[in-house]
């Protein structure tokens, strides 16, 4: 333990270039050891062939190979972050830990614990503490940077979007942080700790995260194609923004360059939900509109199982659920329908659906998932009114009238093998209105 070093902690920013925290670390006084921690607090709750863990692992190996070309590497650890940092302090003369901010409730609690520990460790002749520095990287605006004039958070998207755009300065906010010229400040050791998937008790998933596609054509035609699930008119950008394999600044640049407001607005929706979760952390478990927690959910487990397996008898709902189970992805238009169906046709608690999506979605992001589920249930910010209930039959006519999407995922549709509708739409709608009205009025 001779050379003083800084630690850069990769989390939701799995890329070497245009990574603000990594850039700042490389400009520091001491050589940088890049690390990643497979957090057992998170992994222990996941299935052993989770596709997202495979994606993270494969991405880290590519990053590690790139760093080894620079005479360095990426140190990989498995365990509770606090335990890992206690070991790092034993193994290296750590001066500072640098990382990019994460806004989810668990992440904030974890970072507070790490910072308090580092601040308790005395180093050097002057009895100093280890620094803990965080940077904004996964969003353009964070926390309370976009709020009302009186400082209150926005709880409706459109005024948030308008204030966001009024504050936005492309030259300043979309600066690209190139790191390739500064990799000489990495800790020179290509044999930093590595792990295999089996070391963290996982195996390779057969489900692959698709590459994102953000071409000028896709952006230009986005609003024309994005609502039709049979067309591949979406970017598949979600997992890459979630895990930071792509920079949000570069994606914003593309949206602005193509002058596509709809695509740009979708990126702003993501930040809207992030600031909602930051301002209102209770919403990860409680309804934003507290009176909606009085709903007398039926929570029928057999009906929930039919929803999960895509055997409800409503073809567009079933196609979406089967696509999710098979690929880890579901078209956004269909996500709204299956969520509405669960909450309003079946009267099953939105938290059940949110938890299932959290297990299955490749692009699972807590703030957006909670926000969208509460939107569907009518209980969240800027939510659909409770009496807005999607008709799963007419939705087919609007968005998959040729049944291309349905037939792809429900091949037995239209045959005697396809199940009958598990509930009558009209009866389910009337039941929903009665139960909701009793709870919220």
From TrEMBL:
<feature type="domain" description="Photolyase/cryptochrome alpha/beta">
    <location>
        <begin position="4"/>
        <end position="140"/>
    </location>
</feature>
<dbReference type="GO" id="GO:0006950">
    <property type="term" value="P:response to stress"/>
</dbReference>
<feature type="site" description="Electron transfer via tryptophanyl radical">
    <location>
        <position position="350"/>
    </location>
</feature>
<dbReference type="GO" id="GO:0071949">
    <property type="term" value="F:FAD binding"/>
</dbReference>
<dbReference type="InterPro" id="IPR002081">
    <property type="entry name" value="Cryptochrome/DNA_photolyase_1"/>
</dbReference>
<comment type="similarity">
    <text>Belongs to the DNA photolyase family.</text>
</comment>
<keyword id="KW-0456">Lyase</keyword>
<dbReference type="GO" id="GO:0006139">
    <property type="term" value="P:nucleobase-containing compound metabolic process"/>
</dbReference>
<feature type="site" description="Electron transfer via tryptophanyl radical">
    <location>
        <position position="297"/>
    </location>
</feature>
<dbReference type="Pfam" id="PF00875">
    <property type="entry name" value="DNA_photolyase"/>
</dbReference>
<protein>
    <submittedName>
        <fullName>Deoxyribodipyrimidine photo-lyase</fullName>
    </submittedName>
</protein>
<dbReference type="InterPro" id="IPR005101">
    <property type="entry name" value="Cryptochr/Photolyase_FAD-bd"/>
</dbReference>
<keyword id="KW-0157">Chromophore</keyword>
<dbReference type="InterPro" id="IPR036134">
    <property type="entry name" value="Crypto/Photolyase_FAD-like_sf"/>
</dbReference>
<keyword id="KW-0285">Flavoprotein</keyword>
<feature type="binding site">
    <location>
        <begin position="266"/>
        <end position="273"/>
    </location>
    <ligand>
        <name>FAD</name>
    </ligand>
</feature>
<dbReference type="Pfam" id="PF03441">
    <property type="entry name" value="FAD_binding_7"/>
</dbReference>
<dbReference type="InterPro" id="IPR014729">
    <property type="entry name" value="Rossmann-like_a/b/a_fold"/>
</dbReference>
<dbReference type="InterPro" id="IPR036155">
    <property type="entry name" value="Crypto/Photolyase_N_sf"/>
</dbReference>
<feature type="binding site">
    <location>
        <position position="263"/>
    </location>
    <ligand>
        <name>FAD</name>
    </ligand>
</feature>
<feature type="binding site">
    <location>
        <position position="222"/>
    </location>
    <ligand>
        <name>FAD</name>
    </ligand>
</feature>
<dbReference type="InterPro" id="IPR006050">
    <property type="entry name" value="DNA_photolyase_N"/>
</dbReference>
<dbReference type="GO" id="GO:0003904">
    <property type="term" value="F:deoxyribodipyrimidine photo-lyase activity"/>
</dbReference>
<dbReference type="InterPro" id="IPR018394">
    <property type="entry name" value="DNA_photolyase_1_CS_C"/>
</dbReference>
<dbReference type="GO" id="GO:0003677">
    <property type="term" value="F:DNA binding"/>
</dbReference>
<feature type="site" description="Electron transfer via tryptophanyl radical">
    <location>
        <position position="373"/>
    </location>
</feature>
<keyword id="KW-0274">FAD</keyword>
């Amino acid at each position: 333990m001779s050379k003083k070093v800084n630690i850069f902690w990769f989390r939701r920013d799995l890329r070497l270039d245009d990574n603000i925290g990594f850039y700042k670390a490389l400009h520091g006084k001491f050589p940088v050891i890049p690390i990643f921690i497979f957090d057992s607090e998170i992994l222990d709750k996941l299935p052993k062939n989770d596709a997202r863990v495979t994606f993270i692992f494969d991405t880290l190996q590519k990053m590690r190979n790139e760093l080894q070309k620079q005479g360095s590497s990426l140190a990989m650890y498995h365990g509770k972050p606090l335990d890992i940092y206690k070991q790092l302090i034993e193994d290296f003369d750590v001066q500072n830990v640098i990382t990019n901010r994460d806004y989810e409730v668990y992440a904030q609690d974890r970072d507070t614990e790490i910072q308090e520990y580092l601040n308790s460790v005395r180093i050097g002749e002057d009895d100093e503490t280890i620094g803990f520095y965080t940077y904004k990287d996964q969003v353009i605006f964070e926390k309370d940077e976009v709020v009302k004039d009186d400082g209150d958070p926005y709880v409706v998207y459109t005024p948030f979007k308008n204030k966001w755009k009024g504050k936005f300065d492309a030259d300043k906010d979309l600066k690209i942080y190139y790191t390739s010229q500064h990799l000489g400040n990495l800790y020179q050791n290509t044999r930093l700790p590595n792990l295999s998937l089996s070391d963290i008790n996982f195996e390779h998933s057969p489900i692959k995260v698709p590459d994102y596609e953000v071409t000028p054509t896709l952006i230009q035609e986005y609003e024309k194609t994005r609502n039709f699930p049979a067309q591949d008119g979406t970017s598949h950008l979600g997992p890459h923004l979630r895990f930071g394999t792509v920079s949000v600044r570069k994606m914003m640049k593309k949206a602005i360059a193509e002058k596509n407001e709809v695509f740009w607005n979708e990126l702003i929706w993501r930040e809207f939900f992030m600031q909602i979760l930051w301002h209102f952390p209770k919403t990860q478990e409680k309804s934003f509109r507290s009176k909606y927690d009085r709903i007398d959910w039926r929570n029928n487990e057999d009906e929930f199982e039919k929803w999960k397996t895509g055997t409800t008898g409503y073809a567009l709902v079933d196609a979406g659920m089967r696509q999710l189970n098979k690929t880890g992805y579901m078209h956004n238009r269909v996500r709204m329908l299956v969520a509405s169906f669960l909450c309003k046709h079946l009267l099953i608690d939105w938290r059940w659906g949110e938890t299932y999506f959290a297990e299955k979605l490749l692009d699972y992001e807590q703030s957006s998932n909670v926000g969208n589920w509460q939107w569907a249930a009518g209980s969240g910010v800027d939510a659909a009114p409770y009496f807005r209930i999607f008709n799963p039959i007419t939705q087919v006519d609007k968005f998959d009238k040729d049944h291309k999407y349905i037939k792809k995922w429900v091949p037995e549709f239209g045959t005697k093998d396809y199940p009958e509708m598990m509930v009558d739409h009209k009866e389910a709608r009337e039941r929903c209105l009665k139960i909701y009205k009793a709870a919220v009025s």
